[in-house]
Amino acid sequence: MDERAVVELTYRPRPSDHRVGLRVRERIKRTGILLRGGLVLLCVGLWVLSSVGRGSINVGSAVPVLIVVLLVWSRTWVQAAHVQRIVGWQGEYRTTVSPDGITCRTDHSTLIQKWSIFRGYRETEGHFVLLSRDPNIMILDVLAKRDIRETGDLERLRAILDLRIPRM
C-alpha cells in the first residue's frame, strides 16, 4: 500500500463528536425534524385544547408540556453521552484511513471496515461523518479534523473519501 495514500488519526472520542454525527444522521434521515416537530405540536395542541376547554390558561398544565419539549430537545445530548460511555472507556483510538478502508485500533480492540459498508459521507466544519448503508444508519464513523496531525493530510483524507464513497 502506498504510504502517501494513508491518513492516520490519533484521538480520544468526545461527546461533541458524537453529537455532530447524530445530528448529521438526523438530517440525512429527516427523523429529528419530524419527531421533534410532531411531538412539540402535539403537546402544545393538547395544552391549548385543555386551556380552551376550561376557559382559562392553567399554568400547571404547561409544566408537563415544557418537560416533554425539553426531553425531546435533549435527546441528541443524551444519545451522545450514552455513546461516549460505550466507546470512551477504551481510551486512545488510532485510526488509519486508506484506499482499502478504515482500521480503528485501541488497546482493547481492532475494527476493520471496508468502504462497501458506507453509503457516503458528509463534511461539516470540524468533522467528516461517514454513514452506513443500512436503512437506520446504525454505524457512524466521525473523524474530527482537529485530530489530523500532518500537513496535507486533510486534503489527502478528503481525496480518499471522495474516491471511495459519495458526498451526501
CATH architecture of the largest domain: Roll
Biggest β-sheet description: 4 strands, antiparallel
- Please give the share of residues in helix: 40-55%
How many domains in all?
Answer: 2
**Proportion in β-strands:** 15-25%
What value does the Rg take, in angstroms?
21 Å
- CATH topology tier name of the largest domain: PH-domain like
The number of E-state strands comes to: 7
> How are strands sequenced across the largest beta sheet?
1-2-3-4
Residue stretches low in confidence (pLDDT < 50, at least 5 long) are none
Secondary-structure element order, N to C = EHHHHEEEEEEH
Give the overall form: elongated
Work out the helix count. 5
Our measurement of the CA-to-CA distance between the termini, rounded to an integer number of angstroms, reads 28 Å
CATH class descriptor name of the largest domain: Mainly Beta
- Name the structural class: alpha+beta
Mean pLDDT: 85
Keywords: Membrane, Transmembrane, Transmembrane helix
Transmembrane segments: 33-49, 55-73
Description:
The protein is built from 5 helices and 7 strands, in the order βααααββββββα. It has about 170 residues and is of the alpha+beta class. A 4-stranded antiparallel sheet has the order 1-2-3-4, covered by helices on one side. Helix 2 (about 30-55) runs antiparallel to helix 3 (about 60-75). The two termini are about 30 Å apart. The model has no long low-confidence stretch (mean pLDDT about 85).
Descriptive terms for the model:
four-stranded antiparallel β-sheet, about 170 residues, 7 strands, 2 domains, transmembrane helix, three-stranded antiparallel β-sheet, membrane, PH-domain like, alpha+beta, 5 helices, elongated
